[in-house]
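Supplementary notes (optional reading)

For those who missed the lab, this is the record we used. Protein: Serine protease. Length: 273 residues.
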Amino acid sequence: MPALSLGLAAAGTSAYAAQVSDTPGDPGDQTKIIGGHESTEAYSFIASLQKQRGDDPDGHYCGGTLIAADWVLTAAHCVTTDTPQDPSAYHVRIGSLDRTKGGEVAQVKKFVVHPDYRYADEEGSAHDLALVQLSSEVSKEPAPLASQTPAAGDTVRATGWGYTKATGNDPSQLPVKHREIDLPVLSPDTPKCASNETDGDAWGIREGDFCTDNPDGEAGTCGGDSGAPALTRAAGRWQLAGVTSRSVGDCASTPDIYPSVAEHADWIREVTG
């Protein structure tokens, strides 16, 4: 399956996007945090991109990060396929560890997809980033952008509301409480960051991405985690280093791939001003 979107494509199938979708043509097959734990630290900038899912008007679709008072950064595959998504169908809950309550809620004004992202349902694209402009400003503190791409041997904190088991494919089973896990960064030329036996290089690392390993072969992101922040620590505070995009193969057992925020900082600042 493609990226880890919240389209809720079945987790555990080969190569996935991290979003959750439940209708054909919906962007986002999601990912989840597997092998992690519920967050105990408040993150003012975490965001849940939501829309009507069945009877739930606040169905979680993808993660995101508040980077300015009226801008959230997420994965491109969360908001676009081969057809444009209607931003008015979405809203964003920001700054709560519980995706069903708390924090601040804002409607979505528009989506801005990275101009070099190319949607395909059979492979992952470089530049898997999109900016979500909110219809009104919120008061939560945004995340600062990392100035450097995480290097091999660094640790990043992957976060989100994705599935906690690789067999998940039912949106009603997504965790309500925010989860996290610390993952080691691999060198970008590590073979398993580029390909796996089943899918070849279809979902592997691309220009501008970084890659994390899966401790004990059973930890990482999965469906529902798409678009959520990958964080690093600098000067005593968390900063946004990457955005959850996809797995090279099966979730939690093959490396996870993230577009680097530092590599795309010029585009982000050009759009958000």
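If you only remember one thing from this example: The longest helix spans residues 265-272.
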